[in-house]
Every structure is written in structure tokens, then in C-alpha cells.
Amino acid sequence: MQLTFLGTRSSSDRFNARHRRHSALLIEGPRGRVMIDCGSDWLEELPQLAPDALLLTHAHTDHSAGLARGAPCPVYATAEAWQSLLEYPLADRRQLATGQRLTVNGLLVEAMPLHHSLRAPAVGLRMQADSTCLFYAPDVAALAEPAAALQGVDLYIGDGSALDETLLRREQGLPCGHAPIPDQLQWCHEAGVSSMIITHCGEAIIADEETVCHQLAAAAAALNIDLIIAHDGLRRELC
Ligand SMILES: [Zn+2]
Ligand SMILES: [Zn+2]
What we know:
CATH superfamily: Ribonuclease Z/Hydroxyacylglutathione hydrolase-like
CATH topology: Metallo-beta-lactamase, Chain A
Bound molecules: zinc ion
Number of strands: 17
Order of helices and strands: EEEHEHEHEEEEEEHEEEHEHHEE
Number of helices: 7
Structural class: alpha/beta
Shape: globular
């Protein structure tokens, strides 16, 4: 399984050469190419990218507005996300439901509940191919069921929006927004996940990635977690 981080920018307007495009991941395996999320940055390129399937984590525009002119493949999203995407001209809409596993081009996919937004409810995606299991949560304030979400996960790909709690808030008693990266490291530590890649990079990383990288490397090393910050175009081979 080959991973390509097509984009690694958050919804913030700030970007640089390493984090120019909205966060999206391409997973290529023997049975096809699956793209995850498709923000407005990808509107023009989607026909050339030509994935065999598209999975959406949620309906915020930095994850879904690249579908405004349609998609060349089936698109999987939760019923809640579809409610926000009714106007998009998508011919092949498929349902993602939490607690239900499905196979998408050879990838075993399970949507896991998490907290991020009341207006655009999001899920994390557990995906397994061969013996590798990864968890993708580019936007997450808290995991609803951390043990179930992260059990047996080899690689956690998480939310790089913030280093601290500035983007975390509570609405109707629920956590919303974006969890600090150090909190996500702690989730991985508690679940025994040994590898983490940061995507959806926010202002702290855009402003001074080197300093952030040093801070996080120390925190990750203390927990025995291998951590890197992804950049647009980063490729990783998983077997
Ligand atoms: Zn986002
Ligand atoms: Zn979001």
C-alpha cells in the first residue's frame, strides 16, 4: 500500500510551499486508488487525479468542496455529511456508517465516531490492507471511542491544526474543534500506536515548522513514538 499526502494544509488561509493544498490522502494498492477528502483546492485537479473511489471524513469545505462539479468515481460519506452535500452533482453516492465495515478497492474501511463539529459531524477512518492498519483523522477534537478506534493501529495520521488548546472548545457539552498535537500523541501512547504522521497543518507549523518539529520530536521520543510532519507530496510505502 502506497500513501501519498496530496495536501497537508488546514482550513486556515495561511500556507507555504510545504503545506499549500487542503489535506487529502491517496492510498494506492493492487486493487485501486482511493482518495480521502477533497477540499476546494482539488476542484480543478480531481478529473486528472481520477481516483477509483473517494472517502470523505466530513463536509467542511476544506474536505469536500472539490466535489462541487462532481466526481469521476463513487463517493463514500456518512448520512450526516450527505445532508450538507445535496447540491453537488454526484451520481454515485454511497453510505459510510459507524460500526459498519466495508471494502473499498481492496481496502477494509471502518468509520469511527469522533468529536469535531456539531454542524459538520466528522468520522475517523480505520483502514486496513494486508497486515497494515492505519487511522486517519485530519480533524479531531476528541475520539468518541479511543480504544476501539486505535486498537491494533500501526500508523495514526492526525490533526496538525494546533499545538495547544486554542482551537478546542465545547458546544452543547461536547468537545469541538481541534485537539492539541501533544494530546494526540498521548492517545497513541495509551493505545500502543508507535507511529504518527501529522497532516492538516495549522498556523504554528506554517509559521515555524522547525521549532515545532523539535518540540514534538522530544515529546514523541519520550513516549517512544515515531513522529513526522507530512508535507504536500510526501509518499510512504506501507506493507
Ligand atoms: Zn479541516
Ligand atoms: Zn473540519
